[in-house]
Design brief:
The protein has 256 residues and is an alpha/beta fold. It has a single domain (9-252), classed as Glycerol-3-phosphate (1)-acyltransferase (3-Layer(aba) Sandwich). The chain has helices spanning 9-39, 46-62, 73-76, 91-94, 117-123, 134-150, 176-184, 230-247; strands spanning 64-69, 81-84, 103-108, 127-129, 154-157, 188-193, 200-201, 206-207, 210-216, 251-252. The strands form 2 sheets. Strands 1, 2, 3, 4, 5, 6, 9 and 10 form an 8-stranded mixed sheet that branches. A two-stranded antiparallel sheet has the order 7-8. The relative contact order is 0.18.
Length: 256
């Protein structure tokens, strides 16, 4: 179920006025991150540089406020696997506020072909998964395990696997993140954001001001678990995140 809020003249005018500014700031953030990457080629904290620059600039331009509840948990339990809910390409804006140093993301290989962003994704030492080739995918996951265990680098993943436009219920979770957490014996740290589509709707060309709420849940330990516990771990995580998704609300600012 998509947002039922009808775009107003003001929200559509804001879209056409602010979108070019957002694109310009995106390019600026990419260039600054690229310069940093020349000094620290594919360093796992390059992503933190980009996310901080990008998020602070874009939220200012849009007029979006992001409130993170229990923010202290983000650093307290590293290394870990951050588990986020996947709504749209705008996840990079919302979840970037929770992105920490020495953290990388896992994404599908096709991301490389996205103009600007694909090369940036590579520069930030993120891990690419080739879903069409099982052996290559397994090598990528083995690398992720090594980074978690030996380099103490955290990983950000979206277990729904594809964009979820439903404002009421999370999609079923894929198992990759949970196998990885068990093999590496690191905790899962769920991060749940309220629907961003209430504020930014690319399809209807609408931007509104308001507040996105993000809840960082208690970590879910995997110590002592093995592959036989994967389904139980998925169920426990999804129930906790679904409950948080129902609690978090996007607050629209009055347009009057």
């Amino acid at each position: 179920m998509r947002s039922s809020i009808t775009p107003t003249f003001k929200s559509r005018a804001a879209f056409y006025l602010k979108l070019p500014l957002c694109l310009i700031w995106f390019v600026i953030a990419v260039v600054i991150t690229f310069v940093a990457a020349l000094i620290r080629w594919r360093h796992p904290s390059n992503g933190y540089i980009f996310t901080q620059l990008f998020t602070k600039g874009i939220t200012f331009i849009i007029g979006m406020k992001i409130v993170i509840h229990h923010q202290e948990r983000l650093l307290k339990h590293q290394p870990c696997i951050y588990i986020g809910n996947h709504q749209s390409m705008l996840d990079v804006l919302v979840h970037s506020t929770c992105y920490q140093t020495r953290t990388v993301a896992i994404g599908k290989k096709e991301i490389l072909w996205v103009p600007f962003f694909g090369f940036l994704f590579y520069l930030c030492s993120n891990i690419l998964i080739d879903r069409k080739h099982h052996e290559r995918a397994m090598r990528s996951m083995a690398m992720a395990k090594h980074w978690l265990q030996n380099r103490r680098i955290s990983i950000y993943m979206f277990p729904e696997g594809t964009r979820n436009k439903d404002l009421t219920e999370l999609l079923p979770f894929k198992k990759g993140a949970f196998y990885l957490a068990i093999h590496a014996q690191v905790p899962l740290l769920p991060v749940v954001a309220s629907p961003i589509g209430e504020l930014v709707d690319l399809k209807q060309h609408s931007i509104r001001q308001g507040t996105i709420n993000i809840e960082v849940l208690e970590p879910i330990p995997t110590t002592g678990l093995d592959e036989s516990h994967v389904d139980e771990l998925i169920h426990k995580t999804r129930v906790a995140m679904q409950s948080a998704f129902e609690r978090t609300k996007t607050v629209l600012k009055s347009e009057s």
